[in-house]
Amino acid sequence: MRIAIHVVNLLFLIFLLGIGSLAYLGMNFAPYPGNHVGENIGLLMIYVFWGVGYYLQLKQKTITRFIIFFVLEFAFLYIWFMYVISFIDSLFEA
Fold first, then answer.
1. How many domains does the chain have?
2. CA distances from 62 to 3, 13, 66, 67 (A)
3. CA–CA separation, 57 and 1 (whole Å)
4. Is the distance from CB of 93 to CB of 40 less than 8 angstroms?
5. What is the rounded CA–CA span in Å between residue 35 and residue 3?
6. Running DSSP on this structure, what letter comes out for residue 59?
7. Per-residue pLDDT for the chain (94 aa), expressed as one digit of tens each?
8. Which residue range forms the structural domain that includes residue 40?
């Protein structure tokens, strides 16, 4: 089971690195007069949450609990991408 956890999380990390690099490049080359402090904090926290989720997934005993936890982590990161980064941006750049 640990091999499956490592493989799935490695693929998920590659996916997150691709999305994060596209978001970072889009922020730095888009004509925006302000700074991107909130967005950069949001992008950094995505990898922190992934690392915490990966650690917690390794602590699971059954494959069912791992799958449930992985889906919850994916949903949390989706919500983070869509809503929380905008909130953090409004805090730092208001």
1. 1
2. 13, 22, 6, 9
3. 11
4. no
5. 41
6. T
7. 788 888 988 998 999 899 888 888 887 787 777 777 777 787 888 889 889 888 888 888 888 888 888 899 889 888 887 887 777 777 776 6
8. 2-92
